[in-house]
Amino acid sequence: MPFDLPTVWAAIIAFAVLAYVILDGFDLGVGILFPFFPDRHDRDVMTNSIAPVWDGNETWLVLGGGGLMAVFPVVYATVLPALYMPIIIMLLGLVFRGVAFEFRWRTQRGSVWWDVGFCLGSGAAAFMQGIALGALVQGIEIADRAYVGGWWDWLTPFTLTTGLAVTVGYALLGATWLNLKTTGPLQDRAKALSKATAAGTIVLIGVVSLWTPFIDAEYFGRWFAFPTAIFSVLVPFLIVLCAVALWQGLLSDRELQAFLASLALFVLCFVGLGISFYPYIVPGALTIQEAAAPESSLVFLLVGAAVLIPLILAYTGYAYWVFRGKIDPEEGYH
Predict the structure, then answer these.
(1) The domain 7-322: what is its CATH number?
(2) Three-class SS state of 142
């Protein structure tokens, strides 16, 4: 082939994961913020703001997970045993929040319990995604293309910190989304929460960023050796610019700017991970080339991806375009 198929597929999987994070992140954030909006009507408006898109956002998780299994089966077979517990809890959280989302509309008396389920499911999914990310960054013990670590290796102070960082970051996405989509007192509270979660997210990004290079000598070399050190300086600089744009957007009522700036923070953090990882797909254990499926499989699957991904992008863009603008508090999902 005239191009490097494993690298192409690594980029596709990375894009699918990033799309999931920035799209499903804000609707998980809406659920995480439920305790700060005790009024039933406010919660109805909040869920109405994500009702047209929340289910479709999870398409990217299916694409990323399914693509990983098909294209990098060794990664799937080694990483999954290392992260069984956080992944199972994450999936249970996503299932339970989906059930709660539907059932909270079917009852008045018991709706508060489904609201609790929606909040807990959203929080558990977000926290476990951060745990899994932290466990991948800190390293997974692999020998002879098999996981050889312990059952609880994923649970460390670093992974707990990354779990908290992702949860607070998703809350920021949810708050800026609500600031964009709602009006009145609900929007005012969302704006206040946007400021609080923005401060928390920036602090936690700083903590994780300063911690990561000292986890592994390979990371330290990537971050502080030429030429990758150029990106190590550029990415934090861009994060500061995004933080300024986010804060200005909140102070000047530029709602879309604030939301896009919060999304950009996640994109830049993702780029930082790419700088740390490449060319490894499992840090320090498996490179992209070593973990890839046979070339014939990559070609066959690439044909399907070339058809499927543009369709998903078109559907997603159309859905967001149709349901653009502010939410009518008196109308929505029932």
Answers:
(1) 1.20.1630
(2) strand
